[in-house]
Amino acid sequence: MTASRKTARCSAAAQKRRIFFGAGGSMKKSKQKNIVFVCSGCGHEEPKWLGRCPECGEWNSLVETAVSSKAAVRAERSAIPQSFPLSQVDGQEGTRIGSGSPELDRVLGGGIMKRSTVLVGGEPGIGKSTLLLQTAGRVETRGRVLYVSGEESAGQVKMRADRLELSCERIEIFCSGTLEDVLTVMEALHPMVVIVDSVQTLYTAEAGLVPGTLNQLKYCSFELISWVKEHDAALFLSAHITKDGVIAGPKTLEHMVDTVLYFEQADGEQRFLRASKNRFGSVDEIGIFTMGAKGLFAVEDPSLLFLVRREGALPPGVATAAVLEGSRTLLVEIQALTVPAKGSISRVFSGHVDQSRVSRIAATIEKCLGLRLSDHDIYVNVAGGIRINEVGVELAVAASIYSARTGISLPPRAALTGELTLAGEIMPVRRLSSRVKTALSLGFDSFVCPAADKSPPESVPTEAGLTRVKNLTAAIQALFKAPA
Predict the structure, then answer these.
(1) Contact (Cβ atoms closer than 8 angstroms) between residue 234 and residue 259
(2) Considering the entire predicted model, what is its pTM?
(3) Fewer beta carbons within 10 Å, N or C terminal of the chain?
């Protein structure tokens, strides 16, 4: 090849490089800055393509993604941050609005707080969409309510609203999972309440190409939370849960929101709404609903809801406990069963009272009363399926286990409350007067409680049926009228 041909070929190649890469012979820096590679599995970003994600280890998961210019706009807008005295903040800025459901207001701490985000999780088919749609139709506000449905069509939502007999005048429906479209509708409508069903269906190209990833959930939720805080609105997010009973997605999502609610189902048509996190209220309150053909109905007086009415003597292993659930007193039936262990190791089965608590109570009974339980399997159940975490249930659990093991029934109209220590002592509980008054009003003529009391003496009824005990031995003697 002659020198002139080589020179011509080099000139043509250089001309192609200048056309493709630019005058500098390399890719433009502006394009390098606007392109990153994002893992579709975990959201990890890399400046260049890799065969395997260094964060989660997935192969061929890095996808070329354009970087949004929103970050630069926000950086310019907040380039000079300024603070202001806390004394100048209006204390009424975060006012509450009624949800239209007294049970939901109870769990939220008195109503829906403006500029707040509520995350509602529960099993499939438990009634999350029904609860949110009823809230959209009954919320006590004159503003608009935006219902974003990523799982159902507008016709399906309208059919449910007609079945629930809801007024749809203020409800705006939008069926899409694209974040940009949702934000556009919110900017045009300026709703007071935004409901997203569900957060796992939100999607934006800025966070990758696969919906439902950890990066998608964090990015989309952050954008919606930022919007409602800037526009004095409230946001409800519906979320699925995993087989372990926790909300699916990153734990960061629960840190971003203000309130986390779990919707649980009991045996039958009862539904329980609990708060595991609440920045504007207590997490001790519980909302009780009944699912019917026309939606969820609030149970305002659940005192008798978890009691089994029987005629005559009680079967062995049954005791009635007076417990607190938030500001309400509930009387629940504790059922226990003991059977000889089939193996060398005894086991404890308890779905509604913590198993470790039942094991500790059984060990205390064996130590203080000399009743052998280490060679028996122990089963503990709560009638109605409600989960009890309050310490006042421990004396009733101990009495039911003792009754099941000995075959001796408790008095039919006796209620119990008290915390049991490892030494067999009965410790005082909160609001004893409320427990006693509730039991007496429901027809119970005997009440066994701790000798020490945190309540004022004049607030506790002094009827003859009130028995105060200091330890487990005295409680067993008072209940079974025999030496323990």
Answers:
(1) no
(2) 0.73
(3) N
